[in-house]
Amino acid sequence: MPELPQSAVERLIRKAGAERVSEEASHSLTRILEDMAAGISVKAIRLAKHAGRKTVTADDIKLAK
């Protein structure tokens, strides 16, 4: 089950310039974004642990990206 709200993803696509967005398109982008976010999160957690911290910081996320 998706964690990101479909309406938010649809708004992102519209903000990028789309006049109309299919439900399938917003679902596809949601899956892609969630996969990317999970990968970045795993890397950021490793960076925080390597630095001896339990807290993931914005810098960890930026470096993981």
How would you characterize the overall build of this protein?
- The structure is a single chain.
- With 65 residues, the chain is mostly helical.
- It has a domain at 37-65: Histone, subunit A.
- It contains three helices and no strands.
- Helix 1 (6-15) crosses helix 2 and helix 2 (23-50) packs across helix 3 (58-64).
- The protein is elongated, with a radius of gyration of 15 Å.
- The mean pLDDT is 96.
Radius of gyration: 15 Å
Largest sheet: none
The fraction of residues in strands falls at under 5%
Helix and strand composition category: mainly alpha
The DSSP helix count reads: 3
Low-confidence regions: none
Instruction: Compute the number of strand runs.
Output: 0
Q: What is the arithmetic mean of pLDDT?
A: 96
CATH architecture of the domain at 37-65: Orthogonal Bundle
Provide the CATH superfamily of the domain at 37-65.
Histone, subunit A
Order of helices and strands: HHH
Secondary structure: helix percent: 55-70%
Shape: elongated
Distance between the termini: 24 Å
Classify the fold: give the CATH topology of the domain at 37-65.
Histone, subunit A
Q: Mind telling me the CATH class of the domain at 37-65? A: Mainly Alpha
Keywords:
single chain; 65 residues; mainly alpha; Histone, subunit A; 3 helices; elongated
Fold blueprint:
Elements (H helix, E strand, L loop, with lengths): L5 H10 L7 H28 L7 H7 L1
Helix pairs in contact: 1-2, 2-3
Summarize the structure.
By secondary structure, the chain is mostly helical. It has helices at residues 6-15, 23-50, 58-64.
